Amino acid sequence: DGGITQSPKYLFRKEGQNVTLSCEQNLNHDAMYWYRQDPGQGLRLIYYSQIVNDFQKGDIAEGYSVSREKKESFPLTVTSAQKNPTAFYLCASSIPGYTGELFFGEGSRLTVL
Amino acid sequence: QQQVKQSPQSLIVQKGGISIINCAYENTAFDYFPWYQQFPGKGPALLIAIRPDVSEKKEGRFTISFNKSAKQFSLHIMDSQPGDSATYFCAARMDSSYKLIFGSGTRLLVRP
Question: What's the rounded Cα separation, in Å, for the pair B100 and A31?
Fold first, then answer.
């Protein structure tokens, strides 16, 4: 089955630690995205990548980093510089070209203790 | 100007009733308006979408109404069912962009 796999589903970390969230897709999509979801604030774009070895900052990139070394993978690192990292993180991908349809993973819930 | 304002924040409807969720935008460069449905613990999934050259699009019990002059669009769920209980997000995409701008979401509860 084609889809997007995010791991881990739940993650706890102590303040000051970096954590990396995994996102893998087998849909052969060129574009991949990371969104952050907070109650009452909708989905906010952290980073996106249109092609391997290239990525752009979204609206709330501060305190986050990404890499895109393979088409299938787009990991997100939440660094200790992120002031309020507790949130639900969603990875998505889209088909090449001009489309608004995003295919989302099931998300990773990060809690900072 | 890049915001999409969504209301209400939450909505309770009886089974069989009509659920209506509204969104408004300012930027006339938006050219694509999708709605996403999200069940608890899951990622959002595309429900229905519309482009600004049409005023209405219907897919089953779900209808998007689009008012270009008022810069508003809405989702109507006819004959609402308990299985429709979810969070709904409107969104807008600017032309020549990969970015989707999402509304803040509406949590719908359909009572049996």
Answer: 13
The pLDDT confidence band at residue B31, using thresholds 50, 70 and 90, is confident
Asked if B45 lies within 8 A of A104 by C-beta distance, the reply is yes
The stretch A25-51 carries a mean pLDDT of: 92
Q: Give the DSSP per-residue string, B27-55.
A: -TTEEEEEEEEE-TTS--EEEEEE-TT-S
Contact check, Cβ <8 Å, B42/A106 = yes
Q: CA of B100: which chain A residue's CA is closest?
A: A100
In terms of DSSP bridges, do strands A108-112 and A10-13 run parallel, antiparallel, or are they unpaired? Answer: parallel
For residue A41, list chain B residues with Cβ-Cβ distance below 8 A: 104
DSSP category for residue A70: B
| Predicted pLDDT at A96 | 66
